[in-house]
Amino acid sequence: MKLVTAQLMQAIDRETIEKRHIPGPELMERAGRSIAEKICNDIFVNPEKKRVALFCGKGNNGGDGFVVGRYLHQYGCQVLIYYLGPAENLSPDAKLNYDRAAALHIKTKDIRSNIDLPAEISADYIVDAIFGTGFTGVPKGLLSDVIEYINHQELPIISIDCPSGLNVDSGQHEGTVIQADYTYCLALPKAGLFYSPGRELAGMINIVSIEIPADVVASFNINENLITPEMVNSLLPKRKPDGHKGDFGKLFILAGSTGLTGAAVLSAMASVRSGLGLVTVGCPSSLNHILEMKLTEPMTYPLPDIGKKGALALRGLGEIKKKISESNAVVIGPGIGCHHETGELVRRLVASLDKPTLIDADGLNAFEKNKTSLLGKHPKLVLSPHPGEFQRLIDEVLPENHIDRYKLAGEYAHKYNAVIILKGSPSIVADTDGALYLNPTGNDGMATGGTGDVLSGIIGSLLAQGVTPLNSALGAVFLHGLSGDLAAAEYGRRSLIAGDLIDYLPEAFKTIQPLS
Asked: Which of 161, 227, 275, 367 has the most crowded CB, counting CB atoms within 10 A?
């Protein structure tokens, strides 16, 4: 699903209205009707007698609110519409729908000052339709007061398109902003709803179709996308009912060093929890007995050690190549450490690989001073840095701005001829052609050691099962974050550990593919 800025959404609306001759009031009607239907289906269930207070601004977001109110009234709700009057100051389309609501004898109240706000609101839900995605600046005076008033009602708040006061490009706000429980975003998702604090302010986000022609959206050549459950469902490999373990991929993970065996374990266990047939963990020989005790389903393979220091030695290159030749995909990096000889091993290995490969963690750090040896060398490569690793890899200071940071990831995905996962909140996937994919799943409980190793295992598993590098990255980041969300719902975010994500991977897959 395409991801847009406010300016781009306005341009798409103009194209739809002016070139495709779909009038603005018709789009507003579609928006309000669809939102009302979704509210009743998703939240109210039994809309009869539900008391709903709508707060409508003077612009087209307010117009959407009047339409929502009209349809909720028709579904049996008790509706009261507060609008920032007077009525003659409403935008033309908003005024049209104000008149339609009034014709149905829906109660309306003109708010011109604080004294017009009731001391106690008689409602079960509040609908916020004050500002839409075109809002910039700071709510002042009465507008700010109304937003604060709504937030203090201790009622569930449903925002239309975005929480009023939020900048939908940056996810930031200046001054007061609605704290919504639900946001019904119109037509296409806006990027700022998925950046903090926008994602927290928006609550549960639903995308509502207003039937903008697909070719209109396509004509804008949008490179930014939102990863959706439907997308992930479509890219996961189909399983043969009569298949055996050899049919579901063989993965080789090069991992582990003294003090970091846990990274190897987490990656291996995440891979087998993601539909993989067989996984082998290549590790320093002095640590093999530790991994054999920790791992049951995955196999281990002891490799030459640097003087029993618990680090992979360069002389193991030939053995590693042989094991990789027997595998469908490779993961390099979880917990391998930063010994200079191990780094040389990684660089030589990557230069010779022709299998789908993920490089993560210290595997990436091996290229910090040897970037040219990675540039464009491998057509089936996935890199998964966190911001610090990415900064070292590109030798540039990362922009603070989310949009600029993600565009930089896109530039380097092209330079390296590799899919890049820039991990963060949210994570972004950058393809070699410049396309960017934002991941909406995940939470701050995942900001703990080992979760990146879990992600590596999921990516490697999908690569080994024959999924393309891009699709492996897209599916893995979504499922990884979804596992974290499911685990957080059970344990809370504060107590989350990386192993919890592995435990909840089966539930994440069932959520995406409920019959698999």
From this structure: 161
Verify that 283 and 414 share a domain, yes or no.
yes
Q: Are strands 419-422 and 428-430 parallel, antiparallel or unpaired?
A: antiparallel
Query: 36-39 contacts: CB < 8 A, separation 24 or more?
Result: 36/67, 36/68, 36/70, 36/71, 36/72, 36/75, 37/71, 38/184, 38/206, 38/208, 39/68, 39/72, 39/127, 39/158, 39/182, 39/184
Q: Which two tokens stand for residue 35?
A: 């939102």
On whether residue 241 sits in a domain, the answer given is no
Q: Contact 483/438 with Cβ under 8 angstroms?
A: no
Radius of gyration of the chain measured on its C-alpha atoms? 26
CATH of residue 189's domain is: 3.40.50.10260
Query: Are residues 176 and 287 both part of a single domain?
Result: no
Domain of 471, in residue numbers? 249-511
Whether residue 52 sits in one domain with residue 164: yes
Token readout for 128 is 């916020």
CB 174 within 8 A of CB 199: no
Instruction: Note the pLDDT tens digit of each residue in 223-279.
Output: 999 999 999 999 999 999 999 999 999 999 999 999 999 999 999 999 999 999 999
234 falls within a domain: no
The structure's pTM equals 0.95
pLDDT of residue 7: 95
Q: Is residue 235 part of a domain?
A: no
pLDDT at 56: 98
Our count of domains for the chain comes to 2
- Judge if 454 and 335 occupy the same domain: yes
Cβ–Cβ under 8 Å, residues 321 and 349 = yes
Task: Please tell me whether residues 380 and 274 are part of one structural domain.
Answer: yes
**Residue 166 sits in the same domain as residue 290:** no
3-state class of 381 per DSSP?
strand
Do the Cβ atoms of 286 and 310 come closer than 8 Å?
Answer: yes
**Residue at token pair 């709510």:** 139
Give Dmax over CA atoms of the chain in angstroms: 86
